[in-house]
Input
Amino acid sequence: MSGQPEVHEFQAETRQLLDLMVHSIYSNKDSFLRELISNASDALDKLRIESLRDKELDVDSSDLHITLDPDAQARTLTVTDNGIGMSREDVVGLIGTLARSGTAELRRKLAEAKDSAASEELIGQFGIGFYSTFMVADKVALVTRKAGESTGTRWESTGDGTYTIGDVDDAPQGTAVTLTLKAVDTDDHLYDYADQSKLRQLVKRYSDFIGWPIRMDVTKTVPPAEDADEDAEPVVEVVTETINSQKALWAKSSDEVSEEEYKDFYRHVSHAWDDPLETITLKAEGTFEYQALLFIPSQAPFDLFMREHAAGIHLYVKRVFIMDDCEELMPEYLRFVKGVVDAADLSLNVSREILQQDRQIRAIRRRLTKKVISTVSDIAANRPDDYRTFWENFGRVWKEGLVNDADNREALLKASSFESTNSADELTTLTDYIGRMKSGQDTIYYMTGESRQQVENSPHIEAFRAKGIEILLLTDPVDEIWTSSGAEFDGKSFTSIAKGAVDLDALDDADEDEAAKEDKARRAEEFGGLLGWLGETLSDDVSEARLSSRLTDSAACLVGDTFSMSPQLEKLYRASGQAVPKTKRALELNADHPLITELQSQFGASDDHSDLVPTAKLLYGMAVIAEGGELGDPAEFAKILAGTLTTALGTTQS
Output
């Protein structure tokens, strides 16, 4: 090593995470080896593809492999690869600090986890596989040299909050991770990871399908030949064996692969520790030949909605790894799908730019997308518990497709489910909703909001509830967008109950009689003066004032135009930094409410209506608050309310 190694401290959250690993209570500590082998396999994949792209890269890629080197006497295990390696900056960025955010959230969830199985799923969910080595090791040392560079790097830590790092002049290309193993304690589910038979067992279980050879020096005793002297001793020799089969799982037929093998392969490609919710196999022959092995996870990764989230599909060409996050093979809203696609006819040095233009890739993408959608539809139809798990984890991202994938929108809607006023506990499909529609109802009614409670308490829903009309309760931010995109299902449009004029009389069992029509006309004329005055008085905030047919209990509500933005959508745009002009909405009044009848009485009793202005402003403010909105000037509203209450109590303000 050249020069003195430097001592650095981990980031605060990383130190907390290391403490969790060092004092781990997780039962399945075997998984650390799968994580190290997966990292080594990734490094070999990257070297192969880099050597194809950069012909001047000075590397030897003729015998790429992974080596396990246990030393029972020294109590060490070294996992080595001759892959792409890392620079000093890579080591500091990827290992010296926690490169991905979310550690605090992980620690909170770990504290809440009920058992070790739940904890293991969280470890994989938060993408911290390398740190799992501290579950079995008192010290971890890493020596690495990046392909094409002359100087290597040594990193070392005991997990105590610090690490050392320094340059190495004679480091071979690739990476070697050496674990100084903890003492064997079977009561703590800690096995002897320096034992060759144990390592062979773990490789067979977790990493048998790895495409690169995993080698280990094995000690064998060869008995004397039959014609040897009687005094001849057995010969002890060390041979290097490949201890994995290397057969690509996606190349096997489904009856050749066990469920456990699929689970282990899923964990390998996803770097997760949960079980897949569904396994999808696909083989296409003809013009475009390819094989695909895809997985729908049972848990959403913590970074599902982060901008830097990586795509989950690995691309191979004739079983040669090309890239591990091929965005071109799966639409963004299916980014939770993990797996591999092995195409037969692509070039080995294909670039992302070429992939974006390749018609074969586009055809594969269309087929994979439809297959995933149909699979989710089957789960929804036949496995309600699994479907609920899927929807709780991926429903929000699934609905992004309703905005971005018009070609598959109908199929996506069919496999979607929503909360509704029909049930407080169960979700409903659109097919079931349509089956319950009232006679004469030709549209799917919905309302958006920030929570179910907010929507259910909205004045807009009162008349619909009174008439037994079911409303979809949409509370995800993406709902604001797809419902405004002209979506239809089974020939039925979607209508917001908070926009436009509604005529619920058409849904009554009998047609509206003449007396009811005359009563409407009389009321419109009776309240005409008040409505006009309110429209002028509140002109800075409302487009007009009118009588409502959607209110039964509340005094007033605000209603947007049919194609206007909802307040929630305006808030989303402003939160993203976009300037959105304020949308004026109509103020609708309940002519049967005592407040409105009294306001009408006072309005008609005098030609001077200046003393009613505070009441008009209170009426508008109440409508804003009732729908969960934010007042433009809360202080003014509070002042007017205090004055009104004081007058109502018969006291005199000082």
In short: The chain has 22 helices and 23 strands. The longest strand covers residues 137-145.
